Amino acid sequence: MSETFTIHYFATASQYTSKNTESLPAPLKLSALFDQLEQRYPGIVEKVLSTCGVSLNGEYVDVEEDGEVVIHAGGEVAVIPPVSSG
Amino acid sequence: MASSEPSSQPTQVPAHLDPKTYPRTHHNPTQNIHITLTYEPLNANTYLSQTSSPSAGANILFLGTTRDTFEGRSVSQLSYTAYPPLALKTLAGIAEAAMKTHRLEGVSIAHRLGTVPIGEASIAIAVSAGHRGAAWRAGEEVLEACKEKAEIWKREEFVDGGMEWRANADRDAEGRSLGNERV
């Protein structure tokens, strides 16, 4: 079985993907994450991801500045759209 | 990956969307900080009693309750989801910052998740301080910081059909549009 990491989607990101969570092939560099998602969900980068934060294993990351960081098998990524608590 | 779920449910519900994994809490006894994420109704007295103490002369409670309209459209139902690995950390950070800035005796922040019936509390904030000035200021500051940063999302379902995910950055504290709403 090939190795995977978990990615969670919230709010507008879960609406766009019609998923709350899924497994994607690992390892993957952070710099390749948005391309990977764009291939699966055409238009998602412009319509959703451009206003979203990203976390890796519970810490915020910058997919460009931290682009060389590798998402390993078993890792947990979350796509964080603009929040609306309260 | 093996799954015991029937094939009609191809995706498992992640733990953070499973109400059985709640309440999730963070408690710092040294600073008297209490953070709660729960699918149960919020009981205001619980949070007030967490922060009050003999040294606190001012105790402020804020309850945010769900409203039945958005820009004139009737809202039939609201629900919230959270990502606790980030939300608990963010809320704890907000509470710690307020403790330090305002010399508080305690802070409690609780957010309800899942469906919240109209008129019921979705967020409760209790702050206690020696005197009222600090408590009032801290209460507002904590609420605004929660709305800006906590990894929690509100979904509104409308009576006339349709649903929308809300973004707090689109509105100020008076509910006015800030003109950056995305279509």
TrEMBL record, chain A:
Keywords: Cytoplasm, Molybdenum cofactor biosynthesis, Nucleotide-binding, Phosphoprotein. GO terms for cellular component: molybdopterin adenylyltransferase complex; molybdopterin synthase complex. Pathway: Cofactor biosynthesis; molybdopterin biosynthesis. It comes from Penicillium fimorum. The modification 1-thioglycine is found at residue 86. Its main location: cytoplasm. Belongs to the MoaD family. MOCS2A subfamily. The gene is cnxG. It is found in: Cytoplasm. This is Molybdopterin synthase sulfur carrier subunit. The modification Glycyl adenylate is found at residue 86. GO terms for biological process: Mo-molybdopterin cofactor biosynthetic process. C-terminal thiocarboxylation occurs in 2 steps, it is first acyl-adenylated (-COAMP) via the hesA/moeB/thiF part of UBA4, then thiocarboxylated (-COSH) via the rhodanese domain of UBA4. Pfam families: ThiS. Acts as a sulfur carrier required for molybdopterin biosynthesis. Component of the molybdopterin synthase complex that catalyzes the conversion of precursor Z into molybdopterin by mediating the incorporation of 2 sulfur atoms into precursor Z to generate a dithiolene group. In the complex, serves as sulfur donor by being thiocarboxylated (-COSH) at its C-terminus by UBA4. After interaction with MOCS2B, the sulfur is then transferred to precursor Z to form molybdopterin. Heterotetramer; composed of 2 small (MOCS2A) and 2 large (MOCS2B) subunits. GO terms for molecular function: molybdopterin synthase activity; nucleotide binding. InterPro entries: Beta-grasp_dom_sf, MOCS2A, MOCS2A_euk, Mopterin_synth/thiamin_S_b, ThiS/MoaD-like.
From TrEMBL, chain B:
Residues 1-12 have a biased composition (Polar residues). GO terms for biological process: Mo-molybdopterin cofactor biosynthetic process. Substrate binds at residues 131-132, 147, 154-156. Pathway: Cofactor biosynthesis; molybdopterin biosynthesis. Its main location: cytoplasm. One of its GO terms (molecular function) is molybdopterin synthase activity. It is found in: Cytoplasm. Belongs to the MoaE family. MOCS2B subfamily. HAMAP family: MOC2B (MF_03052). Heterotetramer; composed of 2 small (MOCS2A) and 2 large (MOCS2B) subunits. This is Molybdopterin synthase catalytic subunit. It comes from Penicillium fimorum.
